[in-house]
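Sample intake sheet
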Amino acid sequence: MKNLLLAGIIGAAMTVSCSTAKTAQSNKAEFLKLKGDWQITSVNYDKNFKVKPFDEGADAQCFVGSNWRLIPNNWSGSYTINGGGSCPSVIQPIKFEVVNGNEFKFKKMLEGTKAKAVTVGYTLNLISQTEDQFTLEQNVPSNGENVRIVYNFERTSLK
């Protein structure tokens, strides 16, 4: 009887762990589709607010035309703001992760800093994804209100 009970407990544990692993693999498989180079084609938000996302000191519109390289197999990447006008030139390495299948979290990496030492980052929601496009949404506080910012990405190459 003890052996039967033990076998039942082990079987139940394996079923739960396998289904969790399959869900995690499924989520990771979806985000592996993000691998490659992307460009932000538009940034949409209520223009009545001054929004400077990701602590770059630049208006959200400076991110239009920015290039993002995402490498999901080691969860690293970078973004580049081209500069010009009132927009700064920025090349920013990042580490990112995908949580719960729809949260895109990233943190900016400084030269010589390990990812585990960086405790501040950004959370965006994945609101749509195809093979060649995806859209992220971020809520940013501004003047005591939350401003919804939508970033639309298009694939520029699959590397």
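Comment: Confidence is low (pLDDT under 50) at residues 1-25. Residues 39 and 55 are 19 Å apart (CA to CA).
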